[in-house]
Structure formats: C-alpha cells, structure tokens
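Supplementary Note 3. Input sequence used for the single-chain structure prediction.
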Amino acid sequence: MIRALYLFNNILFKLKLRLVYKNIAFDSGLKINRWPTIRVHKDAEVKLGKNILLNSSNRTYHVNMFVPVKILCDKPNSIITIGDNTRIHGSCIHAFDRIEIGHHCLIAANCQIMDSNGHALEKEKRFNSQGSSHPIIIGDNVWIGTGTIILPGVTIGDGAIVAAGSVVNKSVPENCIYGGNPAELIRLL
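The predicted structure, written as discrete structure tokens, is reproduced below.
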C-alpha cells in the first residue's frame, strides 16, 4: 500500500512539473518522498539531472527534518542545476543568480544553500533591497552534512565533505573535510 502511494505521489508530482512549471527540466529517475516546495520565476530555470532524490519525508530518513526540500529560483535569469544521482534531504536551495550542484552529491537535512544575503549590508537599505548575489558551485561527489549553511560565492571542490552544522563562507578545496563556524580545513582525504 505504501509503495503504491509513493509511486502515485511521484507520478502526480512529475505531472505537476510538466504542466505548471515549463521552466523546470528533469530527466529520468526523478524520485520524491513527499512533495518539495518549489517556486521558480517565469524567467528563471531549474535543471534536474538523472536519478535525483528530493526527500521531504521524516519517515524514510534517519535525521529529523524541519521542513521539506525547498527549491527557490525567484529572480529573472536565476538558475539552479542539480547533477545526476544527487540526493537532497529536507534542505533549502535558494538562487537569486546561480547555484550548481554536481553529480553524485549527498545533501543532508536542514541545510541552507543561498547565493544572496537577502538584504543589503547598509542599514539604510536593508528593508528595501535584496543585497547582492554571488554564484555557488558544488562539485561532484560532495557530501554536505546536516544543518550546514553555504553562503554566497562559495565553491566546494570535487570529493569534499562538509561536516554537520558548518557555516561555509569561503571556498573549499577538493578531496578534504571542512567543518566548523566558520568552516576550516579538518584534514585532507
């Protein structure tokens, strides 16, 4: 019974993507556990690769999720690209400009990946602006631990691991473990 509901939910979600969101491209094997929250500007674009999992279900995941997967691409010309065989669990990906996530990535629950601060730094402008944005690039085979925050302008190299609860405010080289607030090198892999 549960498997039948899961399959029905996936079919219904893909139908909604095709009918409602003309600017979301997805390949074969897209799987969802409970519906994610998606908001895409009419002049923005989301590209989902093959065999992606968007998991918003606490029932099927070992860490408590506070919210469903959230994909926001709400400015004209903003773009989110997610590579093949990537799994995202109860996390927010919010692009004002561009966020690229590579192939074979693991993004644990409750992560925040945002390419803008959301407000200007100057106190006179904070309530009436959305600040500047800087692209985020996450390489292939990256594992981002639960509760991690990735800030604007960060690049995370191939094969890197970001420890749970980290705040990543500068780029991470490939094949290493970074962690902490702010995140720093723990060791090379």
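Residues 116 and 133 are 4 Å apart (CA to CA). The mean pLDDT is 91.
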